[in-house]
Design a protein that fits this description.
By secondary structure, the chain is mainly α. Helices cover 85% and strands 0% of the residues.
């Protein structure tokens, strides 16, 4: 694309859709149920930092990292798919995550950060956008998406309240099934790619 603004808009919209922070709201609230506002804010920050760290790492060093570690994108898809399947089943079946005694709650932010926000699809998209549009267009688009993702998670309670209890409950159940289906698709694509 010749127009930098159009290229930025394209990169931003593409990344925002693939990161889908609004769809993560029910899962985030389910995993942080009973947490104080400060802890939810901390988990939102961890989730965004994990997603951002992964995106920028693979954006800059993706091909090199995969080559050095001997990891293929299909194997990454399978691993991410398995974790996503577990979270999706918990969500669809209404199984609440209870952190272990001692308050080791940092895992929540990591689970939300990857693979829920940043998974193989997001990483691949960022790498492809960088190749197609250049790093100077892709990096600001990623940054804006991450800022909006943090605000979405930080104010997840408000967003869910605006949607209402019934709609949020339905969204949670349906999104759990969608997550599980997405996980199966990722695993199937990964297994197919490994052949």
């Amino acid at each position: 694309m010749d127009d930098p603004l159009a290229a930025f808009a394209y990169a931003f919209v593409t990344l925002f859709i693939i990161l889908h922070p609004l769809l993560v709201v029910p899962t985030f609230l389910g995993l942080t149920r009973g947490y104080r506002t400060e802890e939810k804010t901390r988990q939102a920050t961890i989730a965004t930092a994990v997603a951002g760290g992964l995106l920028f790492t693979f954006l800059i060093f993706g091909s090199l990292i995969f080559d050095i570690l001997g990891i293929t994108l299909p194997s990454f898809e399978v691993a991410g798919g398995v974790l996503l399947l577990i979270v999706g089943m918990q969500q669809a079946l209404g199984i609440e995550y209870t952190p272990p005694e001692g308050g080791q709650q940092q895992n929540i932010g990591v689970i939300v950060g990857t693979p829920l926000i940043c998974g193989p699809g997001s990483i691949t998209t960022a790498i492809l956008l960088s190749t197609k549009l250049g790093i100077l267009v892709t990096v600001p688009a990623v940054l804006l998406c991450l800022v909006l993702t943090w605000f979405t998670l930080r104010y997840a309670d408000v967003i869910q309240q605006a949607l209402g209890e019934t709609i949020s409950g339905v969204m949670t159940d349906v999104f759990g099934m969608v997550l599980a289906a997405l996980a199966v698709t990722l695993i199937a694509e990964g297994v197919d790619g490994l052949r």
